[in-house]
Specification:
The protein has 152 residues and is mainly alpha-helical. It has two domains: 48 residues, no CATH class; 99 residues, Alpha-Beta Complex (Aspartate Aminotransferase, domain 1). 55% of the residues lie in helices and 8% in strands. The protein has five helices and three strands. A three-stranded antiparallel β-sheet has the order 1-3-2, covered by helices on one side. Helix 4 packs across helix 5. The longest helix is centred in the middle third of the chain and has 21 residues. The chain is globular, with a radius of gyration of 19 Å.
């Protein structure tokens, strides 16, 4: 079983490998590097630096609070207690009698919005709603809440 320390160490090794690759060092990995992911990371970090770290944190917190309030108005309950919630990933309890897959499918097909399903023992019990990067904006949260209202 992976420990927090081993996960941090693996992350450090992955990041070190990416930095060496980016700098043009001799190849140290036997597979092709995930180039699109590197350019995506580069672009995302430039956006964060341009906006500023504190404003990015505040924007994510505000989007999370907007989502939590809107979900409450729809009668949807968060799966996680307030002190353990992450602004970027929101777990929402699927109400009794609601087909989680049908709601997810309708959001995607009718509104172009994708949310995640529960995994493992939480399959069918929760939705995972990500508010990360550009999606953590007031207009995106309002659009999701409107779509959920229509689908439910």
């Amino acid at each position: 079983m992976a420990t927090r320390e081993s996960n941090v160490f693996n992350w450090y090794l992955d990041l070190t490998m990416i930095v060496k690759y980016w700098e043009g060092a001799e190849r140290a990995y036997h597979h092709t590097a995930p180039i699109n992911m590197l350019y995506g990371l580069y672009a995302a970090l430039r956006c964060v630096l341009a906006e500023g770290l504190e404003p990015v944190f505040a924007r994510h917190r505000a989007a999370h609070e907007q989502l939590a309030a809107g979900l409450g108005e729809l009668g949807l309950e968060p799966f996680v207690e307030p002190r353990a919630r992450l602004p970027m990933l929101n777990a929402v309890t699927v109400p009794d009698g609601v087909d989680d897959a049908a709601v997810s499918s309708a959001l995607l097909n009718d509104h172009g919005i994708e949310i995640g399903a529960g995994l493992g023992p939480l399959a069918g019990r929760i939705w995972r709603i990500g508010l990360m990067g550009h999606t953590a904006r007031e207009q995106n949260v309002a659009r999701l809440l409107s779509a959920l209202r229509a689908v439910l």
